[in-house]
Amino acid sequence: MSYANPEALVSTEWLAEHLGDPDVRVLDCTWHHTSTNLDGRTQYRGRHIPGSVHFDIDHIADKSNPLPHMLPGAADFAKKVGLLGIGDGDRIVVYDRLCGGAAAARVWWMFRVFGCDKVAMLDGGFGKWTKEKRPADMSMVRPEPKSLTASYRPALVRGLRDMTENLVTGTAQVIDTRGPAKFDGSQEDVFPSRKLGHIPNATNIPWADLIQPDSGEFIAADALAARFAAAGIDLQRPIVTSCASGITSCVVALGLYLLGHTTAAVYDGSWAEWGLAEDTPAVAA
């Protein structure tokens, strides 16, 4: 079995061969929660794939929203991404330093939300790239601004009202991609919350289950399909992914895309919103 949509990933071999192509733009999307005392931009300045520029999900976000890194408007996205040297027609490759590329997957999803489909994630990310002793440098990249057309696709995004309505309709299957301890409420989440546990009727598929721990690459297509099947997920029905703050949920959305389920939506606010709201139900096991 092979991926239905393999173009959503590129290998380190492919990127090494095409790094100098005039239409290829590479984005270092490294992001860390503040509790880690790590900073993605600082790590980018230390070493990055040659020619790449840093994409900060906390900067290219709706700064008026108190929730973490919520989607910006289409015009703001187009302006800020254009300043990174990304324009219409470019082929975009995203990567980060986390095994599995959660922040990169978030950026992959963001581009799709705004109508930019020529985007792929580097399978294995920066970790695999450096393990293979491929080039990395410290040179600051100052891209020439470009014009990007962004058109919002609401079908790929869910908000709080959508999720509360789904409690009644059950239209979409909800996949919670956090670890089991956060899902069952035995461990607090990384963002402030009034409650522990998960959205009622959600299914837990930790995002790391889809990633090979040794290489950081996605698991093979047959194993990927088997993981969703084992959890009782029907790929023919609507699916929404959720997590702590809309990052790791994008890994699972990408996994679904690889299998041909291209309409999976992401609950942008995720538990950072649901767990903080006063009137949202939660299930703890």
Architecture overview:
- The structure is a single chain.
- The chain is α/β, with parallel strands linked by helices and 285 residues long.
- The chain has 2 domains: 147 residues, Rhodanese-like domain (Oxidized Rhodanese, domain 1, 3-Layer(aba) Sandwich); 120 residues, Oxidized Rhodanese, domain 1 (3-Layer(aba) Sandwich), CATH 3.40.250.
- The chain has 10 helices and 10 strands.
- The chain has a 5-stranded parallel beta sheet with strand order 1-5-4-2-3.
- Strand 7, helix 7 and strand 8 form a beta-alpha-beta unit.
- Helix 4 crosses helix 9.
- The longest helix is centred in the middle third of the chain and has 12 residues.
- It starts with 8 loop residues before the first strand and ends in an 11-residue tail after the last helix.
- The model has no long low-confidence stretch (mean pLDDT 96).
Mean pLDDT, all residues: 96
Radius of gyration, in Å, reads: 18 Å
**Per the principal axes of the C-alpha atoms, what is the gross shape?**
globular
Largest sheet: 5 strands, parallel
CATH topology of the largest domain: Oxidized Rhodanese, domain 1
What's the total number of strands? Answer: 10
Strand percentage lies at: 5-15%
How are helices and strands ordered from N to C? EHEHEHEHEHEHEHEHEHEH
Name the CATH class of the largest domain.
Alpha Beta
Give the termini distance in whole angstroms.
36 Å
The CATH architecture classification of the largest domain is 3-Layer(aba) Sandwich
Can you tell me the CATH superfamily of the largest domain?
Answer: Rhodanese-like domain
Structural category is alpha/beta
Total count of domains: 2
Strand order of the largest sheet: 1-5-4-2-3
Number of helices: 10
